[in-house]
Design goal:
Layout lengths: L3 E10 H9 L4 E3 L2 E14 L4 E7 L8 H15 L9 E7 L14 H13 L4 E5 L12 H18 L4 E5 L3 H8 L5 E4 L9 H5 L5 E5 L17 H16 L9 E4 L8 H9 L12 E2 L5 H7 L8 H12 L5 E4 L2 H15 L2
Parallel strand pairs: 5-6, 5-12, 6-7, 7-8, 8-9, 9-10, 11-12
Antiparallel strand pairs: 1-3, 2-3, 3-4
Length: about 350
């Protein structure tokens, strides 16, 4: 387990960011000169206590030899470019299920699914994430044959119809992964981080595909029954670091990884807010970050009587807030509205 954790903070954007980088008083976040940081928050963890302090990057040289070594290693990862996505990539959600929490039953037929895919692509989605099993709180596991049957027709023809769009399959099962790989799938988005099915990692190891490592405490059936952490931010960081070290380091397929801290997957409101407020910590692992906040319960917990069916206002707020910390990929239902929000937000930052 780590003793030190490094979180980039004190961000600048657009023209100001480029000026700060040129003057060497700030560093680019994830290789993107349109967002930079001039300070880092250092977390120190031992068995009894977690402390944190914020220092300017110019003062790193004055730290102890051990800490300076750790900080410099983390800074290399924090500033390195993330290669296979643009800086604001929208992943459109296609749930081909009868029981997903928000849109279950709406796109079960192939014709409706393809129409919705086309709409999301025209609205700005660069990735389509197709799922055949609901993983909402309390949902039941279904057989892989049933899950594949739900999505198979769309997966089979996806690349013929949409060759320039990345296809992601949202599944925990090796049989579904194996079937999907026959049809040039680009990503596997596994909410169990490839732990639900012990054969999943073996199934993908010979394929150059993107793997989403997603954090979930427990299972969909149990994850929202009183979730607990010592510190949700650092515990999930440790989970990712240990998972990567155990399953991916030194292997050919180790580089194409995306991290998703799993908002709402075994987290209460306090946990979710902590993760989003300090999500830039995960940049020190060196991989793109994906976040899925679309229509989730934390929005209603905050908004109370102002809750709405699609929860678009809360979704967009969380997207823009995490975008401001360098999150690259946003898994959403309302693609066009989120795209519009990002375009306006970026333009304002560049003034």
């Amino acid at each position: 387990m780590r003793k030190y954790y490094t979180r980039a903070c004190n961000f600048y954007y657009g023209k100001t960011s480029r000026e700060k980088i040129k003057k060497k008083i700030a560093l680019p976040l994830c290789g993107n000169k349109d967002i930079c940081f001039s300070k880092v928050e250092i977390f120190t963890r031992n068995k009894k206590k977690i402390n944190s302090r914020i220092i300017n990057i110019k003062n790193i040289k004055h730290q102890s030899l051990t800490l300076k070594k750790e900080l410099n290693k983390d800074l290399i990862k924090i500033t390195s470019k993330r290669n296979f996505f643009s800086n604001q990539t929208i992943m459109g959600i296609l749930n081909m299920t009868p029981d997903s929490f928000s849109d279950g039953g709406q796109y079960n037929k192939t014709s409706k699914a393809l129409k919705h895919i086309n709409l999301m692509i025209n609205s700005g989605a660069e990735i389509i994430d197709i799922g055949g099993e609901s993983t909402r709180p309390g949902s039941k596991t279904i057989l892989p044959e049933k899950e594949w049957k739900r999505i198979s027709q769309v997966v089979k023809i996806f690349k013929k119809k949409f060759p320039k769009i990345k296809l992601s399959v949202d599944t925990r099962k090796s049989d579904v992964i194996k079937n999907a790989l026959r049809y040039k799938v680009d990503m596997i988005n596994d909410v169990s981080s490839f732990s639900h099915d012990t054969r999943s990692l073996k199934t993908i190891e010979k394929f150059n595909i993107i793997k989403v490592l997603h954090h979930m405490q427990g299972t969909p059936q149990t994850m929202q029954i009183n979730p607990k952490y010592k510190n949700v931010l650092l515990d999930i960081y440790d989970f990712f670091e240990e998972n990567i070290a155990k399953n991916f380091t030194g292997k050919k397929f180790s580089k194409s990884i995306v991290l998703d801290p799993g908002i709402g997957f075994g987290k209460n409101l306090k946990h979710n807010l902590m993760l989003m407020s300090k999500i830039s910590l995960f940049h020190s692992l060196g991989f793109p970050i994906l976040i899925g906040t679309s229509r989730k319960r934390f929005i209603s917990q905050i908004s109370g009587k102002f809750d709405t069916k699609e929860r678009f206002g809360g979704t967009l707020s969380s997207v823009l807030f995490t975008l401001s910390q360098g999150v690259q990929i946003f898994r959403v239902h309302n693609v066009k509205e989120v795209k519009q929000g990002i375009l306006v937000y970026k333009e304002l930052l560049n003034q």
